[in-house]
Specification:
The chain is mainly beta. The protein has one domain (about 20-240): Lipoprotein localisation LolA/LolB/LppX (outer membrane lipoprotein receptor (LolB), chain A), CATH 2.50.20.10. The protein is built from 5 helices and 16 strands. The strands form 2 sheets. Strands 1, 2, 3, 4, 5, 6, 9, 10, 11, 12, 13, 14, 15 and 16 form a 14-stranded antiparallel beta sheet that branches.
């Protein structure tokens, strides 16, 4: 009996045996940014009272930390593009001569912003501390992390992140403004397997500042295709020609 207890006690007494705050952040990012270069097919749906009131389909071209291109497909936004390159972001409209500078907080649909699908990296944008006590969220035992933005350019300087202890997957995220007011809640609904990696399949975003409190935005990631992408498409000129 003692031979069994000694290794167990050593693990419990050794903080190194538990993931660090940074390792939890890396794990949270892994399922959202599983591939360094990829094309992702997605849908955003506005849901109110259990009914879908609007939707948008789009492809996301992503490369590394700071290159992204969203191309809308179908409906009135067909052909519109949102380009991210470093800290800059533009809207490209078919027929327009010049790209229009926008911010990461520009709305995609409902409570979902461009940053929700193209920019957010917990491990790079935030520092974190792990709360001593676990909490139960949607039936899962979760580690709770308090995040603080590294830069004043980050839209939400304070974040609380709940991570499934067993699966090492994000469960819930609560974003707050500098004032401390809660602004946005993200719940991760489904995960799937693509090319051997665990990826987010569905998440829901609730705008806590909106007057219509019962409305949510559902993001569905329907297909991940690893790809080698030319840097040229992540310029306004290259994106226009894609």
């Amino acid at each position: 009996m003692m031979s069994f207890l000694l290794p167990l006690l050593a693990i419990l007494a050794n903080p190194a045996a538990q993931p660090s705050a940074q390792e939890w952040l890396v794990a949270a990012d892994a399922s959202r940014n599983a591939f360094d270069e990829a094309i992702i097919s997605a849908r955003a749906s506005q849901v109110s009272g259990g009914n879908v009131t609007g939707s948008a389909d789009f492809d996301i071209y992503t490369k590394g930390r700071d290159k992204g291109l969203i191309i809308f497909k179908g409906g009135k936004n067909t052909g519109r593009k949102v380009l991210t390159a470093g800290d800059r972001m533009w809207l490209l409209v078919p027929g327009a001569t010049h790209p229009v500078p926008i911010t990461p907080n520009q709305r995609l649909l409902g409570g979902a912003s461009m940053a929700d699908v193209a920019r957010l990296r917990f491990a790079e944008d935030y520092t974190a501390t792990v709360r001593p006590a676990s909490e139960t969220v949607n039936g899962e035992t979760c580690k709770v992390l308090d995040l603080t933005a590294k830069s004043n350019k980050i839209a939400y300087p304070k974040v609380v992140l709940w991570m499934d202890e067993a699966q090492k997957l994000p469960v819930r995220v609560l974003f707050s403004l500098a004032s401390g007011r809660e602004a946005k809640e993200v719940t991760f609904i489904k995960f799937g397997k693509m090319s051997g990696k665990t990826v987010v399949a569905e998440m829901e975003i609730k705008d806590l500042l909106a007057s219509e409190s019962g409305s949510i935005t559902r993001l569905e990631y329907r297909d991940f295709r690893p790809a080698k992408l030319d840097d040229k498409i992540f310029t306004p000129e290259g994106a226009q020609g894609l």
